[in-house]
Amino acid sequence: MVFKNTLLAFAIIGLLVGCGNQSATKTEQNVEQPVASTTDTTASKQQGIIEFEESAFDFGKVKEGAVVEHIFKFKNTGAAPVILSQVSASCGCTTPDFTKEPVLPGKVGEIKVSFNSLGQVGNQQKIVTVSSNAENRVTTIQIKGVVEE
């Protein structure tokens, strides 16, 4: 009889302890999820946003060998500084140079694109890919026109 009572006591204690742990686990999960989603929402509101004045420049017609340059200006319309991490062209004949400093909210940055038309006769469309920490992480601009012999 004592053995049965001891066994019953251990079973009840095990049940109570087991239920207590499940309750604590559920409470921890409920607390953690809202905090994570609040942080994610705040982070998305605290990003920079790149807005170009123009996304394409048409240089018209030029003679082969001419170097065409154009400056693309963009404004950071977001709430955090924008840092351009990489600006690359689709062709070796096109060279980008860009603002290296962080562009603060409300301020303007620049990307200067130079196109060397030597050996590039015909219709041209060169894409420049801009990578940054902005909300729109990767965006493109283009320079296009016709190179005549």
CATH superfamily of the largest domain: Immunoglobulins
The residue-averaged pLDDT reads 81
The N- and C-terminal alpha carbons lie at a distance of 109 Å
What proportion strand?
A: 35-45%
**Dominant shape:** elongated
User: What is the CATH architecture term of the largest domain?
Assistant: Sandwich
Largest sheet: 4 strands, antiparallel
Q: How are the strands of the biggest sheet laid out side by side? A: 1-3-6-5
Do you know the CATH topology of the largest domain?
A: Immunoglobulin-like
Total strand count, please?
8
Helix content: 25-40%
Q: How would you characterize the overall build of this protein?
A:
Keywords: Signal. There is one protein chain. The protein has 2 domains: 1-45; 50-148, Immunoglobulin-like, CATH 2.60.40. A 4-stranded antiparallel β-sheet has the order 1-3-6-5, with no helix packed on it. Strands 2-8-7-4 form a 4-stranded mixed β-sheet, with no helix packed on it. 30% of the residues lie in helices and 42% in strands. The chain has one helix spanning 2-45; strands at 50-52, 56-63, 67-76, 84-89, 94-98, 108-116, 122-132, 138-148. The protein is an alpha+beta fold and 149 residues long.
Key structural traits:
4-stranded mixed sheet, 42% strand, alpha+beta, 2 domains, disordered N terminus, 4-stranded antiparallel sheet, single chain, 149 residues, Immunoglobulin-like
List the helices and strands and how they pair.
Layout: H1 2-45, E1 50-52, E2 56-63, E3 67-76, E4 84-89, E5 94-98, E6 108-116, E7 122-132, E8 138-148
Parallel strand pairs: 2-8
Antiparallel strand pairs: 1-3, 3-6, 4-7, 5-6, 7-8
